[in-house]
Design a protein that fits this description.
The chain contains 6 helices and 23 strands. With 364 residues, it is mostly beta strands. The chain has one domain: Thrombin, subunit H (Beta Barrel). The N and C termini lie far apart (40 Å).
């Protein structure tokens, strides 16, 4: 079993869980497709109990006190256990799958950006440190899509006020890391609660409003095994948020597409809100990078890219075909403490799609 250096670290406890409010039961969208077939046994879904529902927006003081959820760090990196030999065929998975992205109400395709940022993956991967390009503040979040669909996720976990990153994935749904949704301790005590999503966050401003989560879920593997070889390959979670002023989240900020059962040999734009030094958590930070290698010691073999983002970036989306199709195809998950200039994402397979499906096709 792999050793973990930090998960929550020294986050300060702030508040006790607020009084509960019963939220409306979710209902399926009438046009949803047939239920997906789940392959493998790692991504069965666990839904949080009702007590985790958000009951009120956070105060400015609470948000300021929230600490970045540290990127989980493993201690026993072994270069002999990584591989650059990656393909869908080697994983023996199902057919490639795609779901389209969507724009906010009143917005058409961002023609001025289309194709300008497309990355071409480099076949064969890289040794550590894998190359990447990092930049910040390249667009105004409240004006441009898909930047406005990505934001900061506030929540309490085991009594601590925390923050991660997340992205809109359609209707009322958001996507993040499993460790931002549940601590991975195989107990109901590990659920996050009083969760709040602020898309297009920019140094405390929230031009696209504040969205409270009323339904949270993750994978059985993450819930049960957490930061071990049996859980890290399924470190993703999702939530549904309540309408604001009778509007769905997707109508205000749009949503990312979704792709699964793809080759590992891709390139991504990994976007998050790192708040650990040297970052301050105020703006989106982007790592543009190609596939580096797979970790064969972890179930479902997560893949790494070069990226030096820090705590608070967890759950931020890896966007494939940025500039054209904007597919969510990974999320910021973990790294090794010896390799600070890399980040791993779980591989997105048919089981990942099952979690996406279970939250995407629900409205409050």
């Amino acid at each position: 079993m792999k050793k973990v250096v930090s998960v929550v670290g020294t986050i300060l406890a702030v508040l006790v869980l607020a009084a509960l409010v019963i939220q409306p039961a979710p209902r399926a969208v009438a046009s949803q497709p047939a239920v997906p077939v789940v392959e493998g046994d790692g991504a069965d879904i666990v839904i949080a109990p009702e007590w985790t529902n958000a009951t009120r927006p956070w105060t400015e003081a609470e948000m300021a006190a929230a600490q970045p959820m540290p990127v989980p760090e493993l201690t026993d990196f072994d270069a002999s256990m990584i591989t650059k030999d990656a393909s869908v065929a080697a994983r023996a998975l199902g057919a490639e799958g795609f779901q389209p992205a969507g724009y906010p109400e009143g917005m058409s395709a961002p023609a001025d950006l289309r194709g300008n940022f497309e990355l071409v993956p480099t076949a064969g991967g890289y040794d550590y440190p894998a190359p990447f390009t990092r930049y910040t503040d390249y667009l105004k979040y409240k004006k441009y899509w898909p930047q406005m669909a990505i934001g900061v996720l506030y929540f309490y976990q085991e009594g601590y006020a925390c923050r991660c990153s997340a992205a809109s994935i359609g209707y009322s749904a958001i996507w993040t890391a499993g460790h931002c949704v549940h601590s991975g301790n195989n107990s109901s005590s590990g659920w996050s609660y009083n969760m709040m999503f602020i898309p297009a966050y920019d140094y405390g401003s929230h031009p696209k409003m504040i969205w409270l989560a009323y339904r949270i879920g993750t994978t059985t593997a993450w819930y049960t095994y957490g930061l071990s070889s049996g859980g890290l390959g399924y470190d993703y979670g999702a939530a549904n948020v309540i309408k604001v002023k009778r509007k769905l989240l997707s109508s205000k900020v749009g949503w990312l597409g979704f792709a699964w059962n793809q080759s590992d040999l891709l390139a991504w734009f990994a976007i998050g809100y790192p708040a650990g030094s040297p970052f301050d958590g105020g703006k989106q930070v982007v790592c543009a990078a190609s596939f580096a290698y797979l970790d064969t010691t972890i179930t479902n073999m997560p893949h790494a890219i070069g990226c030096d983002q820090t705590g608070g970036t967890s759950g931020g989306p890896w966007i494939w075909q940025y500039g054209t199709n904007y597919y969510l195809n990974g999320n910021q998950s973990f790294r090794y403490n010896t390799n600070p200039k890399e980040l791993y994402s779980p591989y997105f397979d048919s089981g990942t799609y099952s979690l996406w499906y279970n939250f995407h096709y629900v409205i409050p």
